[in-house]
Amino acid sequence: MVNIDTVYQRVLAIANKEQRGYITPQEYNLLANQAQLTIFEEYFIQMAQAQAAVGNDTEYSDIIKTLNEKISLFKTRSNLTKVGSFFLYPSDMYKLGTLWYSNTSVLEDGVKIQEINENELLDYYNSPLTTPTNSRPLYMRRTENIRIISNPSITSGVSCSYVKKPSKAEWGYVVVNEQAFYNAATANNFELHISEETNLVTKILQLAGIVINKPELVNAVQQK
Which of 19-28, 91-100, 129-138 has the largest mean confidence? Predict the structure, then answer.
């Protein structure tokens, strides 16, 4: 993780050195989260581009390995809750991975749930070998939830792997004599890989230059 205060102090130091104005804690927290989300979303764009290009087989310079290392910080697994006829996505989900169903408390004993498109469902029902059952369940993604098809109907025991969204970053502070001082007890660090510290500083300064109407700050950051 990247320390939220370390980044803020670097942002303030550069902004003050360039005499481009003060960035308040409230502004910083808004810009920090926008910068974190931008960097996070760029991982998947870069991954798609790297997978389409010729790979690099060296252990540490392979961009795909590097991106996988950064994305792995956000990979997790969760049980899904059924409401009505559908299972709900995890509230912090960014990208869905694999679904499993287990009728025991041991998730490793479960079966993988196969994803299909809605127009394929009739074909699966037309063959005894592919008709959905509890040992051969299917699912279809919807915008707001997931439909799982099986016989009998599955009501629980469904889990998924997924990539979660970064948690909200927060520079916690207390005000003393009208001055804000860092409070680690109420702060939340960035969830990004430690190697993204400089990238965060740069993006926050670029955003700050736009928000506080200081285009010269953007130019100064780009030059540095």
Answer: 91-100
